[in-house]
Amino acid sequence: MTAASDTTMNPLSQRIATTIRQDVQSMHAYAIQPSAGFIKLDAMENPFRLPLELQQELGERLGRVAINRYPAQCVPDLVAALSRAVELPAGCKLIVGNGSDELIDILSVACDVPGAVVMAPLPGFVMYEMSARLRGLKFVGVPLTAGFELDETAMLAAIEQHRPAITYIAYPNNPTANLFDDAVIDRIVAAVGAQQGLVVFDEAYQPFSSRSWMQRLAGHEHVLVLRTLSKFGLAGVRLGYLCGAATLIDEIDKVRPPYNVSVLNAEAAMFALDHAGEYTRQAALLKSERARLQQLLAALPEVHTFPSEANMVLVRVPDSKRTFEGMKAQGVLVKHIAGLHPLLANCLRLTVGTPAENDLMIRALKESL
Fold this sequence. Notes:
Number of helices: 14
Strand content: 15-25%
Number of domains: 2
Distance between the termini: 48 Å
Strand order of the largest sheet: 2-8-7-6-5-3-4
CATH class of the largest domain: Alpha Beta
Number of strands: 13
CATH topology of the largest domain: Aspartate Aminotransferase, domain 2
Mean pLDDT: 94
Low-confidence stretches: 1-5
């Protein structure tokens, strides 16, 4: 074996082996598909740009921001504006983060007591597990049923056994797009509360959902609601917020990095809230397109379509790899998620796009089955 091929002879490899955690060396980074030149329907983004006049107004507004100063007053102003916009219940507060991903990590840090467990249904959002493991917490995943519903018996048994510090419930779920049964959720929330844990409802897709837990927060002090402006239409801004009982939020806020949200992000979010009507109009169009897309998919005998309360639709096809590659060859990029969990065998996740994009997606799907 030559010195070039023997990693033990490579000083940098030795340094990595010595200084980087073994579990980090063994893991894969979060994968993002190259999308240049494709009709991009793989990441649940809002496909609509702002009208030209609002683009110009936003540019002028950002140009006036004091980027030479740390974001001091803009964050409290944003917190106040968000609190009004979401009609935050009395006795509750919210904090903001650089996307909901950062807030998930902040929760992992804040709740990292000895033996702490993070629990979530699977398949679910990968950052719950990734953040827990990277912060040294144990992660327990509880499989959904074959129809992507909560397995109440398994969830309650896992809560009794592991006494999780944090239980995440994506509402609607990602990547399955469905809302879980509220009666089952109520019993899970009560069980976690009896074990002195926290429940976090991740409402990333709230603009497209028929239900929310926000207005129930006042009666459930161990429940938090996590949201993002990404699906609202600001995926590029990276702005999330976490809501809950004021005393609990104050404790979690202690581990939030200072100045974690930039002045430009905060100002862009304030601008969006000032023009919420435009984003509400966009969400209404996407919900209408979701319904049309589901009707078109239902007419394809080879495609099984699952219910959706998000801006995506989960489908199962006979050969997901072949269908994904066929659609990609036609310039339409969707998400192939069959490898994420056994329950997702032969599944594709389709983001709801513009009417024209959805027509092209359906045509590419038909031709790729």
